[in-house]
Design goal:
Blueprint (H helix, E strand, L loop, with lengths): L27 E2 L6 E2 L1 H8 L4 E6 L5 H14 L4 E5 L7 H8 L24 H5 L9 E5 L11 E6 L2 H9 L14 H23 L5 E4 L7 E4 H11 L9 E3 L7 H5 L12 E5 L5 E6 L2 E6 L1 H12 L3 H4 L5 E7 L8 E3 L3 H8 L7 E8 L4 E6 L5 H14 L9 E5 L5 E4 L5 E3 L3 E8 L6 E4 L15 H5 L9 H6 L5 E5 L3 E5 L8 E8 L2 E5 L5 E7 L2 E6 L2 E6 L3 E4 L5 E6 L5 E8 L5
Parallel strand pairs: 1-11, 3-5, 3-6, 4-5, 6-7
Antiparallel strand pairs: 2-8, 7-8, 9-10, 10-13, 11-12, 13-20, 14-21, 15-18, 15-20, 16-17, 16-19, 22-23, 23-24, 24-31, 25-30, 26-29, 26-31, 27-28, 27-30
Helix pairs in contact: 1-2, 7-9
């Protein structure tokens, strides 16, 4: 079994969605070139080459790649020499030693982003001895890091979406770079996040301008691929129009039923859905389409090539890191999230190597009557007594009287709760939260988790000490209502539209607006990338230059800064409401 998940594999061809109101596989049509399917067609592209470099991401099934191509090329009558670049890796113990400083010791979740480059994994003496077979019709050097051989050749890059990498991880089908056997899944993910992804993203950026063929290897024995020049042209086109990433969904111990009910293309044979990664750059991919055939690449490829067009004024600060994320937290008929906070900017930089911190907001997209969020402390909070109560609850497994320490606030549709770093918070039951946030997304310090086990039946790790190094105990009492609940203000209006500002906290580097309109509204980007979602209504049509694209309720999409002006047309019978978020000018 190569993957362990309840989620469907991305189809190789575009299907008509069951639920026309939400597209699980949003795609970008390429204007020139085409996407091909299969190893046979790929082999046809290689037969006239003398040297081919098959490089790619961690998690790619190199056994499948090598054996399928070998069979086909042999049938073509070619004598092919394959060289596995993995034989040039340093010894596993040596790789363990150079990566250990970034793994956080015994910490179950957190490490520190590495400064290693891919060349550090390879034995230079072995690389210098890589030789081509003069008697072969075709020499192929393959494997993650194949370009480290320094041998010139036709470059084929195999990409793998981050969700499929994790599904392969859960099936124990892969291991970390340079290692033979898989670790515990939480430890493997930590190694991916802080080391493998950092190292291989840097290498992907280096290779991108020279890729001759890009391959999407997520479907066993059925890769899709296209010329690298077509990919680069498509990325350039995308940076001047609009884009939507491919979302992906995960169940969780507190997960709810809203997304199952509203997104009918999702696999319904799951207990719940807790998250939707609507736009989280380190995790999501971009899907391209030609003649109905789909090919996915990682979102960061767009940023590596086009970050200035994408981010505009914010490009100098954020470079290749897309700064804003959108995701759903679904607690409809589910449970409360864990009581948590996020790190201070200097803390996340020093401890984990991140360039900016996880400042969040909760936009309430939908809710049931009597729903609530937990936010900020009670006026009489005593930090020492609260910590004692947390630690006692952890040891004894007794239920904590959360409301004795933390405020419980009513949540209504379209409310916006502000959660800058250091703020204690969590969503309560029966909310569909659109979390608009700075991009870092794993740096949650849990203090209390309602005495639950995870979906595998294990205790969920808590981070009480880390939380106490970051908690802001001044966010209490009336300060919470005054500073952590956004106060909407109409800034300008027209015949049938309004522009409403939903002010964020001074600690947030991004701002949020809501446009409400009956027919249409035109918006200027003013040099910023806009991230949008239709939060009320059924469908809108986006007009960007000569491009027309439809988006439905709860779909996230982005307008690059290179676009000067865009128009949103309401295609439904009721008033449309669209959320727009972007980096504040003063934060660039």
């Amino acid at each position: 079994m190569k993957r362990k998940t309840s989620q469907y594999l991305l189809p190789d061809k575009k299907n008509n969605p069951i639920d026309s109101d939400y597209d699980l596989y949003p795609s970008h049509l390429i204007n020139r070139g085409k996407i091909e399917i299969g190893y046979e067609n790929l082999a046809d592209k290689l037969v006239n080459e003398k040297v081919v470099i098959l490089d790619g991401y961690i998690g790619v099934d190199w056994y499948e790649v090598k054996h399928r191509l070998n069979e086909i090329l042999k049938d073509r009558g070619l004598k092919t020499s394959f060289y596995n670049i993995a034989t040039c890796l340093k010894k596993e113990n040596d790789i363990a030693n150079i990566t250990a400083p970034f793994l956080g010791g015994d910490d179950p979740i957190f490490g520190h982003k590495t400064h290693l480059e891919l060349q550090a994994y390879f034995d230079e003496s072995k690389l210098s001895n890589v030789a081509l077979d003069p008697n072969a019709d075709l020499n192929i050097i393959y494997g993650t890091g194949a370009s480290q051989s320094k041998i010139a050749g036709y470059l084929v890059y195999f990409d793998l979406p981050k969700n499929e990498l994790q599904f392969r991880m859960r099936a124990n089908a892969i291991a970390n770079l340079g290692f033979t056997f898989p670790k515990n899944h939480k430890q493997m993910y930590k190694h991916f996040y802080f080391i493998d992804w950092v190292v291989l993203n840097s290498e992907k950026k280096r290779l991108l301008p020279n890729i001759d063929i890009i391959v999407d290897q997520q479907r066993p024995n059925k890769p899709t691929w296209m010329d690298g020049s077509v990919l680069r042209k498509a990325l350039r086109d995308m940076s001047h129009t609009c884009f939507r990433v491919r979302p992906w969904f995960e169940p969780g111990v507190w997960g709810g039923q809203w997304m199952k009910k509203h997104f009918k293309d999702l696999n319904q044979d799951v207990p719940n859905y807790a998250w939707s990664f609507e736009m989280i750059v380190p995790e999501n991919g971009l899907v391209f389409e030609s003649d109905g055939i789909l090919l996915e690449v990682s979102f960061d490829m767009l940023m590596f090539q086009e970050y200035e067009n994408i981010l505009g004024k914010a490009a100098n600060r954020f470079k290749y890191e897309f700064p804003i994320r959108f995701d759903f937290l679904d607690t409809f008929d589910g449970g409360n999230l864990s009581l948590q906070c996020h790190p201070k900017p200097d803390y996340i930089k020093q401890k984990f190597g991140e360039n900016f911190t996880q400042d969040e907001t909760y936009y309430i997209l939908d809710t049931k009557p009597n729903a609530h969020v937990y936010l900020g402390f009670q006026e009489d909070i005593d930090p020492t007594k609260f910590k004692t109560a947390l630690e006692c609850s952890f040891k004894t497994k007794e239920i904590l009287d959360v409301e004795k320490y933390v405020q419980k606030l009513p949540a209504k549709k379209h409310d916006l709760f502000l959660i800058p770093h250091g703020t204690i918070h969590c969503s309560g039951i029966d909310n569909l939260v659109l979390e608009i946030s700075a991009t870092p997304y794993i740096f949650t310090f849990k203090m209390y988790d309602w005495q639950r086990l995870d979906l595998d039946g294990n205790p969920r790790p808590l981070n009480i000490d880390r939380a106490y190094e970051n908690l802001n105990f001044n966010r209490k009492g009336n300060v919470v209502q005054d500073t952590l609940i956004s106060k909407p203000k109409m800034e300008v209006s027209g015949k049938d539209w309004k522009k409403i500002h939903l002010p964020t906290h001074p600690d947030h580097f991004y701002d949020i607006y809501r446009y409400e309109f009956k027919t249409q509204v035109s918006i200027k980007t003013l040099g910023q990338c806009h991230v949008l979602m239709l939060v009320e209504g059924t469908e809108v049509e986006l007009q960007v230059n000569k491009t027309h694209k439809s988006f439905h309720y709860a779909e996230t999409f982005a307008i690059p800064a290179a676009v000067k002006t865009y128009t949103i047309i309401n295609k439904g019978s009721e008033k449309a409401k669209v959320i727009v978020s972007f980096v504040k000018d003063r934060a660039c």
